[in-house]
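1st attempt posting a full record on here, be nice pls
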Amino acid sequence: MNQRKSGILLHITSLPSQFGIGDIGPAAYRFVDLLWEAKQTIWQILPLNPTDLACCSSPYHSTSSFAGNPLLISPELLMRDGLITPSDLEPIPCFRPERVDFSPVLSYKHILFQKAFERFGNRFDQDYGNFCKENSYWLDDFALFMSLKGHYQGRLWNEWPKEIRDRRPEALREAETLLRAPVEREKFLQFIFFRQWHSLRKYCREKGVEIIGDIPIYAVHDSADVWIHPNVFNLDEEKRPLTVAGVPPDYFSKTGQLWGNPVYRWDELKNSGYDWWLRKIGHSMNLYDSIRIDHFRGFVAFWEVPCCEKNAVNGTWVKAPAIDFFEKLVSRFKVLPLIAEDLGIITPDVQEVMERFGFPGMKVLLFAFTGDPGANPYLPHNFVPNCVVYTGTHDNNTARAWFEHEASEEELRRLFQYLGKEVSPDEIHWDLIRLAMMSVAEKVVVPLQDVLGLGPEARMNRPATREGNWQWRFLPEQIVIPVFRRLMEMTEAYGRAGKKNVQ
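the predicted structure (as tokens):
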């Protein structure tokens, strides 16, 4: 029998830090302590992969499906390990404590990382050698890719010289020799990132907190993944996308969402035994306890749009070999702790795959108060135990902002009817949290913004928009004892409390 659990959704970048962005240093450990004190046993995060200013620093648009984001490296832990000194930190720019300004953060940390790399270069570290050897299947090519990106001043990889673009062995060997220093620097940063991350994950386990990670279904065209494996993506002879991914018009956008990622050639993936995906899932399982797969329905059928389109309206659904693919995963991994992001247009064939393999889906309470109450899957009385319920996700507004600015009069009427009372903006988040906690869902995850009852200023992402996303950070003074005591009491009342004596 599965244990009833609850926890908090908070990306690493949203943690407090004097260095302009949340990281996997001391503040992350303090947050784990906060979860433990409030008897929460889940910490859900967004993807940890490198972000790109050209893609608005979205964690869902990365240069690698395997690498970690160096911006999440903790300067304080670098200093603890003797890789930088207190004087190296100065001067610290006047970063805004409530927002991430990615460009100045990148500039500041680039200087710090260079100093740390130079100091590390004089040491012999067996752990570093072992890390490079164990991760060579992705690390070598990723480090070269990033070094080439710098060498060619950020140009798309399919615009590089043809012999490099097409990965001719002799050209790659020459590039590795020419770019030896930046290649080693990239490997060093990955070593530091994963060392810090695994230390934090170990601490989570000691506190009885499981980490739910998040992996995007697609790779970005301008990424090491597509450069290394162009045959499994739908590209033309010049290595440009022929068709791209997205979703049709939906709740979030009247013109759909045009993501621009090249779609997979599932025939090629199948011929390889889905090797790329097996490696990706295996790598992720070494980082997290459970894995949320974004846009799960794309494994069953995906929305394919010609690359020339300006929006996602003129796309078509294309079938993917879901049963064969997941049977391969199940045969490889004894435990496959996947969570299916099944929001949006979900057809019976998607539900059939989820039920066949036992993957829990997602229930979002902000979607609950429309349509037929007997059929709306987001109303608690329609839940099944094998699901994860959220008040909202990183793509939604906060519960308070939804209540005050987005919910229709009809939605509010239904909400009040369902609750059996009218509620105020100051209490709406607690009423939704209570609905989630008392439901049959085995897991409940609440964005920290909703625990704190914050408004639209705390929204993480606005789908189909490019500016102003992924920047929210909480302030230390917002973490007040009465709020988390109330969360703990509600967690205990509905049988979701983790054992505080877990050490």
